Amino acid sequence: MTTNTEAFLVEIGTEELPPKALKKLSEAFASGIEAGLVDAELTYGEVKVYAAPRRLAVFIEDLQTVQQDKIVERKGPAKKAGFDADGHATKALQGFARGCGATVEELIEIETDKGTWMAYNLALKGQTAEALLPEIVNQSLAKLPIPKRMRWGSSEIEFVRPVHWVLMLLGRNVVPATILGHQSSNTTKGHRFHAPVELVIEHPSEYAQTLMSKGYVMADFAERTERVRQQVIAVAEQAGGRAVIDPELLEEVSALNEWPNAIAGDFDETFLTVPSEALISAMAGHQKYFHMLDSDNQLMAKFITVSNIESINPASVKSGNERVIRPRLADAKFFWDQDRKNPLDDFLPRLKTVVFQKQLGTLFDKVERLEALTVKIGKPLGVKPEICERAARLSKCDLMSNMVDEFPDLQGVMGRYYATEQGEDAAVAEAIDAQYQPRFAGDDLPRSAVAQALAIADKLDTITGIFGIGQVPTGDKDPFALRRAALGLLRIMIEKQLDLDLRLLIKLSLGLHESVTITESLVDEIYDFIMGRLRAYYADKGISAEQFEAVRVCRPAHPIDFSKRIEAVKQFSQMDSAASLSAANKRISNILKKVEGSLPDAVNVDLFEVDAEKVLWTALDALRETVSVQIAGRDYTAAIAELATIREAVDSFFDDVMVMSDNLDVRQNRLALLNQIYQLFLQVADVSRL
């Protein structure tokens, strides 16, 4: 049977959509429609997503226009309940037949595990895509990730922004529907200023080109983003500089413009006396401008703005943006000058007025905890206590500065500048900034030991405090970003090779919270939460879930120790003997689990009855000392390679020996031998999980 297909297009026209959510909304819209088509059993081809400031659109090629007819088997009552003693249909069976639109004679019998049942094969005629699409689109729109929907006018309809039109075509035909209060049509609208007219879309395939050629709208988000990027690069080169293009800013600017046009502007060079991060934050955060660097990678007194119009007077657009940015930069300079009139220490008492968390006290209380904890962490790292204490003491002072109050993203950055200005130790100044690293996935890590100690302390204090008062993250709710903090401190410990005892640090940190009671179960809960972040971390590095679990169950207290074991397990998994030894350890584990009471440990060689026992014991005894030394030195890769040499002896043991002997002493002796092997492997990893 030939399946007819047509191209499909739906567009929701709105007021300007939130730029930071535009891409996510458009992708979710397309995903929802695809899910609806799958549920409706309609086949389709390539899906194209369009997103611009005033529209969300989805184009689908080769959409099946009619569902396939199908037979649905309806199950009725059991045969013995469907007929009476005389063989006449019971009321239950007659009712079932009527419900199917059939007679009793048209019913069939089916055999099941529970006997014979009466049934009916109902022929269902496929519905048209035209009839199904309105509900599919409505359902997708209803499920969009919109935190807060809005209403407009007197309507009860809710959406992320007011809706002005809906276009929906299947081939050349409008799909009749009411979507978000609007009747569907074959018209869209062009650019708000360049082409504020209705544009007829004759066929879905003409959508993007019609908007481009007649509507001054680039509907393709990726295409528009690339246009912005190329324009910004070209404008910067013309101005004698190099544009710095932040991916998030690029995406946001692309979401703000339907017809982007980049223009360079200038600002007074006197503003360059202000730290470049503050100027960049003012330009990017407030005005969505890109900044430029010169050949020495120094900030230039220039910016690039992206306008949503193709102006006949670019000079006017340029001067207008220059007028707008000047007061922003002037504010930044004023804050910089004002903040430097007093040392950072003067901001410290003001931290008492800011609550960190109701049960955990103020930011000042947090600083006092950080002073103690940073010193403890810094000691094994070889950092002088007074340096750690000073870095922690000044760590949050810049939060009270005028600059950070205006530009929150500069926390730590301005602290570094202010500390340097007042002559603090360079390590202290760096630590104030680096305490927040890594700020995001892939971000740099603190370089100096004092910065590493402070960064770990800051993250650990938050985690232990929030867990201590019982506010454990659930689902996607993590208001204090504990997951990010946990992964951050683990990355610092592992990637900077810091040999720190995480369980000990958790206890030390908990002890600094006056409102928290320390229990072993709480320490375990926090340890498991933090170490659990490594699952995804190692998955990104090609470590399987089984390899991760093999190490996790050993619960090493030092994250760097965990890392070394993971590497050993990875190497072991590539050995020829890995599968056999893993299976043997699994068998040993299963045997030992069934033993009631404590496991025997001492082996008596005089109780050996089979050569395979003696051979295995000799092999184990020969490598025990070497392996113990390797494990003590954390050379787990060498240790597990050494342990792998007993594979043949283990295989022979299981081939020739009945572990659960009727002789109790012999049985206990064999269990002790297996237990010693298992425990030796466990000092590296539980390879039975591989």
Give a written overview of the molecule:
By secondary structure, this protein is an alpha+beta fold. The protein has five domains: 5-67 and 128-215, Alpha-Beta Plaits, CATH 3.30.70; 73-124, no CATH class; 221-339, no CATH class; 344-532, Orthogonal Bundle (Hypothetical protein af1432); 563-689, Orthogonal Bundle (Isoleucyl-tRNA Synthetase, Domain 1). It contains 26 helices and 18 strands. The strands form six sheets. Strands 2-3-1-7-8 form a five-stranded antiparallel sheet. Helix 20 (545-552) crosses helix 21 and helix 23 runs antiparallel to helix 25. The mean pLDDT is 94.
Sum up the structure in keywords:
26 helices, 48% helix, five-stranded antiparallel sheet, Alpha-Beta Plaits, alpha+beta, four-stranded antiparallel sheet, 18 strands, 690 residues, 5 domains, single chain
* Beta strand count: 18
Architecture of the largest domain in CATH?
Orthogonal Bundle
Helix and strand content put the structural class at alpha+beta
* Multimeric organization: single chain
Which range best describes the helical content: under 10%, 10-25%, 25-40%, 40-55%, 55-70% or over 70%?
A: 40-55%
Q: Strand sequence of the main sheet, in spatial order?
A: 2-3-1-7-8
Q: Into which percentage range does the β-strand content fall?
A: 5-15%
- Give unreliable regions as ranges: none
